[in-house]
Each structure stands twice: as C-alpha cells, then as structure tokens.
Design brief:
The protein is α/β, with parallel strands linked by helices. It has 2 domains: 327 residues, Alkaline Phosphatase, subunit A, CATH 3.40.720.10; 82 residues, Arylsulfatase, C-terminal domain (2-Layer Sandwich). The protein is built from 11 helices and 18 strands. The strands form 4 sheets. A 10-stranded mixed sheet has the order 8-7-6-5-9-1-10-11-2-12. Strand 7 and strand 8 form a beta hairpin. The longest helix is centred in the middle third of the chain and has 23 residues.
Amino acid sequence: MRIKLILIVVILLAAAVHAETGPPNIVILFADDMAYADPACFGSKVNDTPNLDRMAKEGTRFTSFYVATPVCSASRAALLTGCYPPRVGITGVLDHRSVLGLHPDEVTIADVAKSKGYATAIFGKWHLGHQPAFLPGKQGFDRFYGTPYSHDMWPFHPHAPQLYPDLPLYEGDKIVQTNPSPTVLTESCAERAVRFIAEHNDKPFFLYVPFNMPHVPLGVSAKFKGKSRNGVYGDVMMDIDSAVGGVLAVLREHKLDGNTLVIFASDNGPWAEYGNHAGSQGPLRGSKGSTWEGGMRVPMIAWWPGKVPAGAVNDVVVATIDVLPTVAKVINAALPSDRVIDGRDISPLLRGEAVGKSPHESYFFCMGNTIRAVRSGTWKLHVQVIEAKGAAIEVKPGQLFELKADIGEQVDVAATNPEVVKRLTEEARRFVEELRKNSRAPGKL
C-alpha cells in the first residue's frame, strides 16, 4: 500500500511539474462582431462581464489592437496566417456559394503548433471556405465543431431567406445537424473547449474558439436569458463571458494557468445597422464594414499569470496579424521562410517589455483587395488607392487624424500637417506596390 501511495504521489508531482514547465499551451478566444466598448473592462456601463474583467485584472489590456479588415472571412484569414487579407487572397465574406477558401498551402497557427507536436482544435465559426478542401482539417486542426460560415446564412435570414440553404453544423468533416438554434452555439462550443483542455492537460495544445456571437441573430443559453441589464445583447455578452470563465477555470483546475497564453479579441466592430442587437464602439467612429476606428479597433486581453503583467494597459499598435509570429516565438516553432508574413512577434510586449514601442512603423487598414488607411504612431491617414492594370499605383490622401488627441476621428488635420500626409501617402503607395508583387492566390475549386 505504501509503495502504491508513493507511486501516486510521484505521478501527481510529475504532472504538476509538466503543467508548469512543459511547452506552453495557446488559447485564442475570438468573438464575432463584439465592439470595442462592449466588455465592462473596456468601458461598458451596461454589460456584465466579470470573467473578462478578471482576465483583464490578471492580464494586460491592449487598447490599440486592430483587425486587418472589418469583415468576417478576411479578418479570420489574417488572424490565422499572420498576413494582410489581400496577401492570401481572402478579401471579403464567404458563403455557401463560394468556390474559394483559404489555400491549404497557407501556414496557419494550427500548422505552426502541429509542427511542435501540439494537439489542435477549433470550436465555433470557421468562415474560411465550406468546401471539403478548405475545412479546418485541411488547415492544421485535429478537431472541428461548429458552423462553416456565419449563422445568419440560413433559411431564416430576415432580409433574404430565399438566398440560403440549411445551415450545416459540423463535427469533424461530417454534417451532424442543420439549422442549429442560435441559443446553443456559445454553450456547446464552450463545453467542448473545456473538455478539450481537460483531456489534454498533460500534453501541449492549441485551442481556437471563434464564438458565433454576438453576431446576429442573437442567441443565448437558458442560463442567461433575460438576466442582463442590457436586453438580449447583454444576455449574449453574459453567455460569452461565462464561456471565457469556464476556459480560465479549467486551466486553473489543472494547474495550467501558469503555462498557458490566452488571448481574447473580436473579429471586427459592431454591425451597427442592427441597433440594440449590436454592440457599442464607445468613443470610436464607424462600425463593421468601415475602416474607421470603430470597424477596426477591437478589445484585446492577453492573460498568462506570471508571464503577462497583471492589471497593465498597453496602447501601442498591435494586431491580429501579430498573433501567428508571436505564437511561433512562444512555442519555439519556425515560421515559413518561403513567403511574406506581415505580422510581428509581440512577445516582448506581452511580457511588459518595450511597452511604448509598436513593431509596426506603419499599419495598414485593408478593405477588399486594397487599403483604405494607414496608421503610423498616433497619426492615421485615410487614402484612396487607384490601380489600373499595367499602370503605376496612385494613392490620393484623404483626411488625417491625430488619434491620441482625437480617438473619434472628428478633426481633420491634413491641412496643417502636410509632411505627415506626404510621408504616409508614400508609405501606402509602397505597401500596395509590394503587395501587388507578393500576394498569393486563395484556394479555388
């Protein structure tokens, strides 16, 4: 009996040591259409988000965190590949009619993780190609549960029900249900995320949870229906917040919190045309579908107790395209050397080092196949890019804003800062020229 007890103790101690010293786990929690000021820790006075607030208290909030474009598919392509959307040929929103998808030859965060022996999973909305050649299993993920595109792309669409067939729900590469109720999507993905972590508590994993919510149609589990101060939207925020809390709790339970980087963010700003079924961008101008700050700047929290400073706020420009190179650095994996990766390693910023220095001399705001704005430091210049086949690229400068003093982009200061306008216009032109030479095609059937 004594020998048996000693063996049990040794096994438990070994598991605890592995949890703290093994290769770090990576978790990305990615909301859909959640606005910059929706979490309480980012300014909301009407949404209750205690778990996100605790995550921020125990981690670092990044307040100038950008997506690469303000629409679903292209934004997700940027996150997973570390590239601006035109670089990989995914520049808009895919649906059931699409013959395009993220090219299987692209290197995703899941591919990078698998190169180091990680288990990988996605539970939620994919939206990078619904054809079998483009599903998550072809992009480095071992497990997939969720929808292939947005859950409003179904026969109950309020404006175009005749456009969409039944919405498939996948488990792996098999359709297991059609037209799932929006009320179950957050909870079912959260349950699978918690189980995945528990099942892999003794081996490294990469978990990606791209929530379907708070994209319309809003759906909330029975536990939170009618419980918020902010109607159904607030209920949905509570549901998502609970899912975040469940993930952090299981990490703590298995003593993985000290060895797991968790990133929470959103894919773009709120879909403002849906009124009180959309979120609040707070002081920011614009919303989903625009390259104003309200469409592109989203809430981001990084959490890794003991590694990421607790209660810190960082306002330097960082972005979804930085996640892949950062994960590669954190897990000691190699990035592909045969292609351009636009993102930069921000692991020093996550550790609280080089706090005031962005890795981006200039950051570009994409829309479709081109860019609409460029930010450098606190300056942001809106531009119009004119391209003709075989002709030189022309960039026309538009409004200039100094975001530190004018986060709402209300006062155009282009006339009084001609040198800044000239510099950013030229940077935009050079970038579009380089993009023209070094972009890659999407997957196509």
